[in-house]
């Protein structure tokens, strides 16, 4: 009972500050604490107990308890425990001491909490607006329950512009984005450049918000959300859909049938396969080796075809419902999938050889975009970025879900901390994924695909779920609710934390290496930008006002 | 195209019993129901933002919905994407109200009950996703001899 041990450790040190604790299983620990003690507790957990910071969540619980809820999630990876530190704040003036001073990785999460839920983090080192559009009024917080999902405040100022920080002395500004050939999605880095060297940057993102969390909390129902969740990201969609359903299942204490767990595992690994193949291709493209880019995409295509055969679509699988999966893998599909894997492995080996022997790629990636252990810890970076820095974390092993506890695989790590190490980690992980799928196909036994749910899901329970996406850990937090939908659903995509490591990665590097450094975290801005309530925020408002853009895009004048 | 490919859903009016399960389970809220009178129920599929997820076909107790292989469905007339069924609901001889398949509906309730109808379409399609002056759904004109 390692979770209980951890709880006792906290109790010994903080006794009276801990109000109550829930241990729904040996894997999850919920500790309700007094708000005043949150900062010290977080420091203790993050520094002394060396837990990994996951995310902070703000929730409006006023219609139910009259309070706001703040949760700071941590992961004890070696103990296989996910821990959530919860505090209730008064409904009229929600304020809590900022933890960003002791846990730097909480920087964005706390700013987002202020923007969207209106919970002030007192003493935040950089309390700039993060998520809301520039013209949005200060006192409207879209994720509060009294704000309708389609509310556009009348005070919204369309022409408001973003205020950048002052440029450091001696530096020139080079804008990178919002639209840049190496990025598929909008994000803006304002680089401070001294000669060829990048000395710092300011990030401005969240330009493509879609209001997904608000929509789920106010309009959709439990089994609709998996379909919405897989549209959070264009590459790791299945990951989000599985993470959401697992969080609901954890909250409602449901366990999907074993065959469903195997099928989830298989499709998650197929997603990792095509994502890694795509990424290696794109990385080669960024450094200018387009032949490998073409080859990687050619090898990747059969995986997409296979996904289409199993689920009916190349990318949006529509796989999960609460309590199971919707598509079965028939014996014919199993045979075909095995063949595809054999072919993939045979083709992937020479490609790995070509990449690892190519001097140009090595010159462009070795010693570039360095994020060492310290950066990883402080930014909360996950996935290949962490593993390439020798931080041995992988949710598939550390917080096993679906059928990962029944298959054997290695967690690939490297020690270079640079882009090259990330290339190596990803290339080797492809072989592990192939092995995992083979084992699953072997071990899978016939059985039901969905759990029959006879009763309404319980209300007000909390569920956590971490799923290892190709880019790192994707963490979902769910509070179950009335009307067949969750009260609060918080998505933390891996890029959310990894992006916070980018400023450290690109500092004092050549500006030409910026693209591959950023590319090496496999940034996925649509995951990160998933919530807001207004559709469009144009970066070029001075020449194209939003109204005109809208009219233009709809073909109406 | 593989066998299980999910394209545009096709509705079969001969099989449909009008239980409304598809409307209650559509994540895109693309299937709407409207009761004109006691015996006549309209089921309208508004294809505009259907994601072809296939939930409707999955929950349909009568298998009246099939996922076709049509996917090239772009059009500049929103009416092209729509399908409409006018369903005559048989009434109970004793109480005069419409039959509904009790067991199927009960089951559907548990997998996600919600009722979308055409009267709420402005609410469903409001707020920027569709403009106010743009018809989200072609208005229904039904000749009735009242």
Q: How would you describe this protein?
A:
The complex is a heterodimer of chains A (557) and B (146). In chain A, the strands form 5 sheets. Chain A has a 5-stranded mixed sheet with strand order 1-2-5-4-3. Helices cover 39% and strands 17% of the residues of chain A. Chain A has 2 domains: 1-130, Beta Polymerase, domain 2; 212-528, Cytochrome-c3 Hydrogenase, chain B (Orthogonal Bundle). Chain A is α+β, with helices and mostly antiparallel strands and 557 residues long. Chain B is α+β, with helices and mostly antiparallel strands. Chain B is built from 4 helices and 5 strands. Chain B has helices at 21-25, 55-59, 102-110, 121-125; strands at 9-11, 31-35, 40-45, 65-67, 83-88. In chain B, the strands form 2 sheets. In chain B, strands 2-3-5 form a 3-stranded antiparallel sheet. The model of chain B is unreliable at 100-115 and 119-142 (pLDDT under 50). Chain A binds chain B through residues 149-150, 152, 219-225, 227-228, 231, 305, 308-313, 316, 318, 321, 326-327, 453-456, 484, 534-535, 554, and chain B through 2-6, 25-27, 29, 51-55, 58, 67, 110-114, 126-129, 131.
Key attributes of the depicted protein:
heterodimer; A: alpha+beta; Cytochrome-c3 Hydrogenase, chain B; 5-stranded mixed β-sheet; 39% helix; globular; B: 146 residues; alpha+beta; 4 helices; 5 strands
């Amino acid at each position: 009972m390692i979770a209980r041990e951890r709880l006792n450790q906290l109790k010994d040190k903080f006794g009276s500050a801990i109000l109550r604790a829930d241990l729904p299983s040996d894997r999850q620990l919920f500790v309700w604490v007094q708000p005043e003690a949150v900062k010290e507790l977080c420091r203790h957990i993050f520094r002394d107990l060396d837990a990994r910071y996951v995310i902070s969540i703000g929730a409006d619980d006023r219609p139910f308890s009259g309070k706001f809820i703040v949760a700071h999630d941590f992961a004890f990876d070696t103990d296989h425990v996910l821990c959530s530190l919860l505090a209730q704040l008064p409904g009229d003036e929600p304020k809590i001491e900022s933890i960003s001073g002791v846990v730097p990785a909480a920087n964005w999460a706390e700013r987002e909490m202020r923007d969207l839920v209106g919970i002030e983090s007192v003493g935040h080192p950089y309390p700039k607006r993060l998520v809301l559009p520039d013209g949005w009024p200060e006192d409207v917080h879209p994720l509060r329950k009294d704000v309708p999902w389609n509310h556009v405040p009348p005070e919204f100022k369309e022409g408001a512009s973003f205020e950048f920080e002052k440029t450091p002395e001696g530096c020139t500004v080079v804008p990178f984005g919002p639209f840049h050939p190496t990025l598929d999605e909008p994000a803006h880095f304002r680089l401070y450049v001294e000669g060829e060297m990048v000395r710092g940057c300011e990030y401005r993102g969240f330009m493509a918000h879609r209001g997904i969390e608000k929509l789920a909390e106010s309009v959709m129902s439990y089994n609709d959300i998996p379909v919405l969740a897989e549209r959070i990201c264009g590459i790791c969609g299945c990951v989000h859909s599985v993470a959401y359903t697992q969080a609901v299942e954890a909250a409602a204490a449901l366990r999907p049938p074993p065959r469903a767990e195997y099928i989830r595992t298989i499709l998650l690994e197929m997603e990792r396969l095509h994502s890694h193949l795509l990424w290696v291709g794109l990385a080669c493209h960024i450094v200018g080796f387009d032949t490998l880019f073409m080859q990687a995409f050619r090898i990747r295509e059969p995986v997409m075809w296979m996904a289409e055969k199993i689920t009916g679509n190349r990318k949006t699988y529509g796989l999960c419902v609460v309590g199971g999966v919707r598509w079965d893998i028939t014996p014919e599909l199993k045979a075909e999938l095995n063949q595809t894997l054999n072919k993939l492995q045979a083709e992937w080996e020479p490609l790995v050889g070509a990449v690892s022997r190519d001097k140009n790629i090595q010159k462009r990636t070795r010693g570039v975009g360095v994020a060492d252990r310290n950066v990883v810890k402080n930014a909360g970076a996950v996935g290949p970025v962490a593993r390439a820095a020798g931080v041995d974390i992988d949710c598939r092993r550390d917080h096993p879900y679906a059928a990962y506890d029944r298959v054997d695989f290695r967690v690939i790590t490297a020690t270079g901390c640079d882009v090259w190490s990330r290339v190596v980690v990803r290339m080797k992980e492809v072989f592990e994924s192939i092995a995992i799928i083979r084992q699953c196909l072997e071990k899978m036994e016939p059985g039901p695909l969905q759990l029959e749910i006879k009763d309404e899901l319980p209300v007000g329970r909390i569920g956590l779920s971490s799923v290892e996406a190709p880019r790192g850990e994707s963490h979902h937090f769910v509070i179950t609710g009335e009307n067949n939908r969750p009260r609060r659903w918080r998505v933390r995509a891996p890029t959310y934390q990894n992006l916070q490591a980018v400023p450290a990665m690109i500092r004092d590097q050549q500006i030409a290496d910026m693209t591959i450094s950023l590319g090496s975290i496999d940034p996925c801005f649509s995951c990160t930008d998933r919530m807001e309530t207004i559709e469009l925020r144009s970066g070029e408002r001075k020449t194209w006002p939003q109204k005109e853009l809208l009219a233009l895009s709809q073909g109406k004048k | 195209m593989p066998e299980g490919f999910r394209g545009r859903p096709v509705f079969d009016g001969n099989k449909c019993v009008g239980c409304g399960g598809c409307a209650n389970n559509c994540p895109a809220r693309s299937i709407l129901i409207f009761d004109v009178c006691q015996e006549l129920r309209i089921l309208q599929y508004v294809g505009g933002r259907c994601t072809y997820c296939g939930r409707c076909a999955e929950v349909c107790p009568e298998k009246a919905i099939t996922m076709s292989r049509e996917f090239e469905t772009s059009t500049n007339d929103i009416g092209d994407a729509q399908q409409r069924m006018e369903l005559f609901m048989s009434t109970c001889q004793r109480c005069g109200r419409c039959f509904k398949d009790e067991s199927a509906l009960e089951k559907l309730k548990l997998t996600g009950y919600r009722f979308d109808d055409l009267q709420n379409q402005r609410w469903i399609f409001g707020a920027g996703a569709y403009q106010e002056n743009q018809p989200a759904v072609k208005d229904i004109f039904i000749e009735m001899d009242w």
